[in-house]
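During the reporting period the student researcher (J.K.) took over the structure-prediction task from the postdoctoral fellow and processed the backlog of single-chain submissions. One of the processed entries is reproduced below for the supervisory committee.
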Amino acid sequence: MTSPVGLHRVVEPAGVLPQAAWRLDTRPEIAPNEVRIRVERLNLDAASFRQLSVKHAGDGDAVRAEVLDIIATRGKMQNPVTGSGGMLIGTVEEAGRRSPLGLKAGERVATLVSLTLTPLVVTDGLAGWDGRSEQVPCEGWAILFARSVAAVLPADLDPQLSLAVLDVCGAPALTSRVVSRYVAERAAEGDARPVAVAVVGGAGKSGSLSLAAAGRAGAGRTVGVVPVVAERDALVAAGLADAVVLADARDPVALSTAVTSALGAPADVTVVCVDVPGCEHGAVLATADGGTVIFFSMATSFAAAALGAEGLAADVTMLVGNGYVPGHAELALGLLRGEPGVRGLFEARLAAD
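J.K. obtained the following structure tokens:
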């Protein structure tokens, strides 16, 4: 029996979903409700790439070798330390007659589900990748299930740019949803206070998109938090935040002080987009009672977040950004097209890679 969520592709251990599996079946023959993609490029998620780079002290050959080993061993790209993967772009080779995804052979697509649950084979040894960037040119194939999500790549954008945006498109979509609710609730209550939003890691991919999304959703005051001067200058030039502050997100007091000083009070909504561990307590401390913290980093310890909030007697709602919100791809691409500051940051990042 072919499962819409890919249970038939789980090799071990039996009875778990593909994301939780240690190893997946990568055979190229597809079931009637599957789609096979000819892979062109992977985008490793930031937390995974950072962990690999730090582990191997920036040795690109060693990073490439470990990524190859992970994929060959597990039948998917899932970093065993961070548990995260990324996503990919490629061309539809074959779509099963009962696939509900609506994809056709020859379409170039981006997968909007994680590589941690996507059967994947690499056939070129990653020969075109130096191991020093999140984007990984490659050859091979991948399998999508009936419950997978994919988007046809837009013709007006460079595929690498689209890949970078779609990799994090869940972050701005959820940020927009949460901020919009705060704005609507205050308007309904006759509360004239502006909704204040802090984005930790505001100069990064998900961070810059989240700042833009917060602004469009009606946030009255936004602050971007970055760790170094170069990122501060880039974010100021992009014009995406009302204020940009320097702080180490791993220092709870420094982060809270920076946000509160910039906004005049703790944030109503704090969005965590950094790719390093240890930022949970600072995010909670920087958020007002009754506020919301959205965690979009795969480096987040959710136990630390929950216990930290309890220990601080913080009345905050904490959300896990799961990467999927209906309409997330369209929203993120719209922000890229409509916000020059966002596009500039993304293009500079790609140029640096």
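The committee noted the following: The longest strand covers residues 35-44.
J.K. will present the remaining backlog at the next meeting.
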